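Hey, weird one. I pasted the Methylglyoxal synthase sequence into the form twice and got a warning about non-standard characters only the second time. First submission, copied straight from the form history:
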Amino acid sequence: MNIALIAHDRKKEMLTNFCVAYKNVFENHKLYATGTTGKVVSEATGLKTNRFLSGPLGGDQQIGALIAEDKMDLVLFFRDPLLAQPHEPDITALLRLCDVHNIPVATNIATAEVLITGLKEGLIDWRKLSKK
């Protein structure tokens, strides 16, 4: 499964800790990440991440392109809702693509926990559900 990892600056530590906690799940999947997030997660966990540009420099759009090409299965995007982002239109476009293509997206740790637990337990196969 292809999983995208994205985190705003004040959420990078939270996403990194999440990846450490679920390293045994993530190591069985192909990980993609925006630039700095991928670097931080890889350094902390040893997980291989395919890194794109930083989000504000086009990384969000690069991940969006994989979604549009049906090459992404899950997005974990730990957003900071209390800080305005200069690339907000890119963020909105990425979330829209997730909705259009039925890609599960978690924008906070609570939803990420549900998705990764479901993935770990094999309880949900959203690819089959979204094709009906």
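That's the output from the first submission. The warning seems to come from a hidden character in my clipboard, not from the data itself. The longest strand covers residues 2-7.
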